[in-house]
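FAQ: What does the model actually see?

It sees only this:
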Amino acid sequence: MVGGRTAPLRFLRVTGRKQLRNAFAMMVLVVLAGTIPALSAVPNAAWKSALTPKGVPGAEITLARGGRTAYEILIPESPTTQEQKAAEDLAHWLGEMTGARFPVVMESDVAPTGKVISIGKTRVLANSGSKIGEANLGDEGYAIDEQGGNLFLVGGGTRGPINAVYALLEEDLGCRWYSRFSQSIPRKPTLKFGPVKRSYVPVLEIRDPYYWEAFDGTWSLRNRSNSSNAPVPVEWGGNKAYALFVHTFNTLVPPAQYFKEHPEWFSEHNGKRDPGQLCMSNPEALKVTVESVKRILRLRPDAQIISVSQNDSVPCCSCPLCKATADAEGSMSGPLLKFVNAVADEVGKEFPKVRISTLAYLDTAEPPKTVRPHKNVAIQLCTDSHAWGEPFLTIEETTTFQNRMKAWAAMGADINIWDYTCNFSNYVGPMPNWQVVTDSIHFFVNNNAKGVMLQGNYQTPGTADGYMRCWVWSKLLWDPTLDTQALMKDFVYGYYGKAAGPIWDYQDLLWSIWEKEHLGKLKSVPSGIRYPMTIFDQEFMSKAKDCFKRANELAADDPQTLRRVEEEEFQILYADIVQSAQSGKPADVAAFKATLDRFERIARREKFTHIQEGGPDFEPWLAGMRKLVQ
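And it is asked to produce this:
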């Protein structure tokens, strides 16, 4: 792990019954936490929190004075593993902030003697006069209150208690976990603040910035995202676990196993059967699908969702029965949804809490006229009809996708969005779409979305603005009312320290190019979301290079900050290389070689592997670039 260090074991003082068992359980959870990354660069003096909680701060309390505390962290006598994890994390980070030791105390027959930070529904909470223990917080919501100098945190049924702790640490106390490799923790031996009394339940059940940078369970837990690719132990509340993700027909009914003997189970085109998709009107294909789903779910007791969905980029079955249903329903989603509903009905008898998800994508994106998804079916609606062709227009500026989503919402469907947010042919190329994604999130939430996945570079580190995108979007998916530019500035001035000024100038440049070009040439971008690097003109490139020249100079004596600047510069180095190689041999061979050397050095250090979506292709791409100047 880059910049990592092993987390020390924290031996906890616990009182009350079951103390040994609970102390051991907490210690195991600490071990499972793995490593704690190195501290972040000191934030720039211009740093300002974008996460200050809404509301009026209450009476000021002093959690620590001169590196000492009178507070204990109180958990119920029979705490959940989530409450144990919440207490341990809070003790650790308050200790990091103040230097004080905050003991975790299990509630027992003997009442605490001093001030407490109570986590969960303790007796102290019940006797405090606070009403937050009565709040309906769902699975992940939380509430914070203060009474008589005591601080109370409660949470919903899964990750709620942990979310309460990280809301307090981030929003009230200014802690940050910008990337999986960094943290920014204020140092305050005397820690005073007025807690903002509040409760919050996230509007989205699935909050998934689908980038490599977000696929870390610890980062996900701290930043309140829940991608299925970011492993969070069930003991800590887990994530939105899929037993199977998408494009699952071949997994559920493998053509290699069944096609030869049962071609009628598979799709028909022009009178011939082929293994590209399932025949959604065949009762035997349905039967095998149901049994496969049940078998997989029996092996995955943690799973909350399983996808029963068509394979990628292959037309659905057009046999007479499937075609008749599609014609009657006005869309291929008709036979697909009838098939998935039938699967859901059978699977729901054994697994009533599992949702069956299917794709509304390509030829199944248009909703059917009369078929409605059953109560345990979720629609994973993809934005391919919008984002692929017009990546720099907002959803309201095109018609096809927004009309489809509104129609799915009108029928009461549970909608989970699959959005596309990066250049899939140039993973590391600059992507000026912050405004578009913000608008999209608002549109999704306002039109019945229950979950949002923002697909980007999920295959390799090195995404353009990867860490910032994941951090900013995790906050927006948690609370869509937050301000995007304020979040971006929070990240830049907190993450890049002394080099933050020119890095913000670069981000402002990217923001401005969207504003400047939105109604001009970017309205019809060559190759859509896979646009070439030639859309960035020389004026942009010159200004961007100047930003990074200044940032490198400011960070020259700080290796950690310099590394972060180079990671951010990676996207401009790439655009420069590709532009220079556009017409064959570069005009300035020496400059090209120097830029390519710098790009390669950073790429190898960061373990970069993919130029574009697909198999690892960095090595052949690099060899091709080298060949141009041999």
